């Protein structure tokens, strides 16, 4: 045979029927006799001579013993080999030579059909393609097992003809039931097929069963198949094969491939590894909604998902955050007034939030349509936690609490619309919390509501830009307060914003609890010398014992006068213990600052906008 290397070893290759696929090829190509040495019970057959009836492991030892006794062992050493084993118990597998039933695989038809299906992620199609192109055999559909779907055929005891059951005879067990007709040879004596069908023969018609195959109403192809990547070459492949063979149609329009669940040790969850965390334990401690969040956000479509308790805890914290947002909202919202009507005029910040909300609807809808559940969940979390809770609610609190505020109705409408929309967006991920949340806002079930739709009129770039500027201004002033150890709820004397943008100041004033004024950006802020700091690294070595007195004298100087003298190229004179000392600019640092209307101010800058803060 061309595949045998005559220069390797003895140049002779061993073959049995069968040890592997290569043996099967050679047996068929060269017309070799079929010799069954092992029976279904794992015992040696009569072809093994004196070893007949012995178990495989025992006969190996017996053969070695006999070879040693006859002096035929030339060398004995331990070697490593790749041996097929049972995936459960790891017992080495022996191949039995048995007749089997096959389904012919038409590779090109399967690949053509697979290409018409939308794969999520799309690269999973490559796995199926590689599998189909590498297949060397047809599909063996028979199994030598005790349980399974019977193969509905009989064998004539007289002539050996195969008699296949008719459709009206099904279902049946050929080992119990007999044919309702005679063999073509006239015999009525049959032997029923004892083998059963491969389980994938049952599973591969699941799409047909769902679609109503052979029923009055047949809706096909079905819309979606969700499944794991580990059974692409089985469940997905065989379903496509059966569907094409039986209907000439693809089984589904789309297929979503998910990954495996990994334990905290990074390995696939398995009883043998003892790394399984039971869903009941997770739900018992944190609830089903936290568990569902983890499943949604744990990884992108097609990738494996690692189970980590810290991710469950994070999901639970998000639920607690949503509950806090809801409780705050319910202080102001009245279920009897729902749904709130949109006021004629919306404030800048309200327009901004509604624009962001509609951006969220648009992106989450796209994520759901592409089965990117992790991205959808991340965007919902970010919006609820950051945009809604940290930014918007803090900006509009003063309006919500002020009964006579002109913008209160605008804020109430915006808050209701946002909470109502959120309850619907989270419903697929957190159905129980969503239902509870919705019950405080509206009548009926959230799961009977329509999915939110984008209101393009609210996707206003100008509103987004203005709202973002308001948010950043408030954020910058709050950071300034924090850095200067000023309590966030403490008012500042005045805040001046230098911009040509027409900003609604009500929310800025409310959030900062300070007077706020808009000024023309061309208004000049005067920079002046506001302080002098002695440089002890220069003064110390030069004046030694008198260094402290020199430093004190520098600090008493008029900063503006010093700045003028230095700018003119002169030196500053001070008097210490009756002596005049001339100092150049190396002995001190002049601190420059801004003034507005004669008052010292600190300057912040956000997106090119200057903010003057007066403490």
UniProtKB/TrEMBL annotation:
Its GO biological process terms? valyl-tRNA aminoacylation
| All residue ranges annotated as the Aminoacyl-tRNA synthetase class Ia domain in the record | 59-306
According to UniProt, the name of this protein is valine--tRNA ligase
Q: Which domain of life is it from?
A: Archaea
Native organism: Candidatus Syntropharchaeum butanivorans
Q: Does the keyword Aminoacyl-tRNA synthetase apply?
A: yes
Instruction: Tell me which InterPro entries the record gives.
Output: aa-tRNA-synth_Ia, Anticodon_Ia_Val, M/V/L/I-tRNA-synth_anticd-bd, Rossmann-like_a/b/a_fold, tRNAsynth_Ia_anticodon-bd, Val/Leu/Ile-tRNA-synth_edit, Valyl-tRNA_ligase
Keyword Cytoplasm attributed: yes
Q: What are the GO MF terms of this UniProt record?
A: aminoacyl-tRNA deacylase activity; ATP binding; valine-tRNA ligase activity
Task: Please provide the record's keywords in A-Z order.
Answer: Aminoacyl-tRNA synthetase, ATP-binding, Cytoplasm, Ligase, Nucleotide-binding, Protein biosynthesis
Q: Which E.C. number(s) belong to this protein?
A: 6.1.1.9
This protein's GO CC annotations: cytosol
Q: Which Pfam families match?
A: Anticodon_1, DUF5915, tRNA-synt_1
- The segment(s) forming the Methionyl/Valyl/Leucyl/Isoleucyl-tRNA synthetase anticodon-binding domain are 350-493
Q: What Gene3D superfamilies does the entry give?
A: 3.30.720.200, HUPs, Isoleucyl-tRNA Synthetase, Domain 1
What reaction does this catalyse? tRNA(Val) + L-valine + ATP = L-valyl-tRNA(Val) + AMP + diphosphate
């Amino acid at each position: 045979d061309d595949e045998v290397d005559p220069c390797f070893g003895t140049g002779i290759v061993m073959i049995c029927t069968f040890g592997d696929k290569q043996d099967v090829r050679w047996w068929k190509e060269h017309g070799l006799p079929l010799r069954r040495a092992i029976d279904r019970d794992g015992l040696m057959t009569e072809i093994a001579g004196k070893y007949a009836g012995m178990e495989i492991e025992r006969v190996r030892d017996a053969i070695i013993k006999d070879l040693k006794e006859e002096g035929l062992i030339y060398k004995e050493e331990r070697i490593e080999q790749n041996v097929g084993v049972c995936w459960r118990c790891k017992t080495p597998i022996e191949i039995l030579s048995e007749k089997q039933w096959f389904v012919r695989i038409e590779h090109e038809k399967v690949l053509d059909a697979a290409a018409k299906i939308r794969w999520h992620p799309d690269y999973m199609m490559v796995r199926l393609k590689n599998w189909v192109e590498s297949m060397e055999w047809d599909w063996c559909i028979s199994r030598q097992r005790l349980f399974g779907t019977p193969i509905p055929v009989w064998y004539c005891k007289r002539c050996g003809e195969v008699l296949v059951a008719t459709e009206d005879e099904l279902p049946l067990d050929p080992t119990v039931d007999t044919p309702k007709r005679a063999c073509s040879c006239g015999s009525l004596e049959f032997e029923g097929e004892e083998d059963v069908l491969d389980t994938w023969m049952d599973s591969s018609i699941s799409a047909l069963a769902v679609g109503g195959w052979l029923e009055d109403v047949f809706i096909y192809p079905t819309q979606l198949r969700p499944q794991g990547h580990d059974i692409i070459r089985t469940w997905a492949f065989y379903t496509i094969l059966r569907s094409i063979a039986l209907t000439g149609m693809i089984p589904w329009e789309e297929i979503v491939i998910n990954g495996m669940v990994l334990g905290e040790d990074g390995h696939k969850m398995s009883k043998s590894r003892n790394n399984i965390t039971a869903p009941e334990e997770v739900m018992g401690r944190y609830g089903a909604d936290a568990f569902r969040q983890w499943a949604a956000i744990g990884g992108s479509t097609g990738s494996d998902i690692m189970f980590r308790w810290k991710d469950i805890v994070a999901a639970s914290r998000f639920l607690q955050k949503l509950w806090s947002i809801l409780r705050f909202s319910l202080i102001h919202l009245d279920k009897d007034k729902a749904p709130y009507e949109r006021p004629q005029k919306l404030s800048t910040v309200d327009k901004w939030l509604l624009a962001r909300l509609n951006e969220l609807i648009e992106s989450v809808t796209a994520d759901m349509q592409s089965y990117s559940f992790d991205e959808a969940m991340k965007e919902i979390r970010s919006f609820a936690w950051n945009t809604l809770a940290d930014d918007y609610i803090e900006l509009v609190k003063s309006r919500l609490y002020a009964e006579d505020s002109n913008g209160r109705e605008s804020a109430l409408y915006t808050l209701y619309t946002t909470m109502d929309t959120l309850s619907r967006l989270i419903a697929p991920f957190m159905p129980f919390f969503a239902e509870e949340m919705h019950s405080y806002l509206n009548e009926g079930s959230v799961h009977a509501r329509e999915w939110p739709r984008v209101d393009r009129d609210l996707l206003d770039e100008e509103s987004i830009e203005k709202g973002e500027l308001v948010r950043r201004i408030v954020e910058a002033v709050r950071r300034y307060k924090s850095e200067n150890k000023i309590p966030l709820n403490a008012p500042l004397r005045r805040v001046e914003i230098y911009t040509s943008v027409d900003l609604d100041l009500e929310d800025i004033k409310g959030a900062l609890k300070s007077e706020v004024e808009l000024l023309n950006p061309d208004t000049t802020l005067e920079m002046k010398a506001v302080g002098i700091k002695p440089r002890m690294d220069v003064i110390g070595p030069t004046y030694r014992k008198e260094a402290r007195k020199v430093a004190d004298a520098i600090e008493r100087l008029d900063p503006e006068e010093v700045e003028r003298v230095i700018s003119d190229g002169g030196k500053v004179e001070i008097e210490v213990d009756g002596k005049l000392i001339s100092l150049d600019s190396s002995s001190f640092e002049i601190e420059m600052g801004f003034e507005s209307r004669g008052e010292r101010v600190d300057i912040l800058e956000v997106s090119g906008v200057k903010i003057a803060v007066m403490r």
